[in-house]
Design a protein that fits this description.
By secondary structure, this protein is of the alpha/beta class. The protein contains eight helices and ten strands.
Amino acid sequence: MKRVSELYGKHQGDAIYVVGSGASLRVFPVDFLRDKITIGLNMAWKWAPVQYGITIHPELNIPEFLGVRPDSPITWITGHEKCKGGLTAEQLKFAEENFYFFNYHGKLNTQPANEPSDSGRVLEWVEKPAGDNLYVWSSIAQAGVNLAANMGAREILLVGCDNGPLAKNHHAGEQHTRWKGVSPEHRYRQYRVGLQEIRDVLEKRGITVLSLTPFLGLSSAEEEFEEACVKKGLPPVVKSFDISPRRGLSGLWAKIYSRIRGPLGTD
């Protein structure tokens, strides 16, 4: 199998753009990204050109497993255990032949069932490259930033990593959410906290992490977003589907429920 550490240092001294699927991406000038080094998170490839993709749910996010052909080849990075648990034998073979794999379990999980596992919340992995380990706690954006740093980025720019809703939208298009029984605000705060603690460590490595948005003002973001949607002929609000596990549904039945509930994705 290919290991994520094989990608380290590949873009030494470059700027790398980590592209999420937040609502702001809907009105972001994505052509700006076409000649940039980009790491797409989960389903960001649906709305923006990405060179690399990273996910811990390959069965839900990788286009080849959804019957979709991406506009251009994407180098995928994911967890091997998720592939073994969520893919068919044929898909697993494809993954092992084509993807790069990373680890995100470094200690025992101490969190309750409705909270994200903290087994990958290991800041020592951010301080310097640590083999195939990447920090993951509450959001795949954290692993994307850690990967960008290990690939040699001097500047990491976040695009579509909103870490919050925008005019009642959670994503750039129809996609699921997964709140797992807590409020969206609670989960978004965890996204931000994880990125903040990574940013603080990377500053010590001389790496700058910035968020890039298409808006001209902080207080006017939602107004600008809605105006841009109207100009582009886009709907101001798109549906999201909470596919959190339901009580009384587990294992295979929970997976079947999530598939028929709405469009697939991951949190």
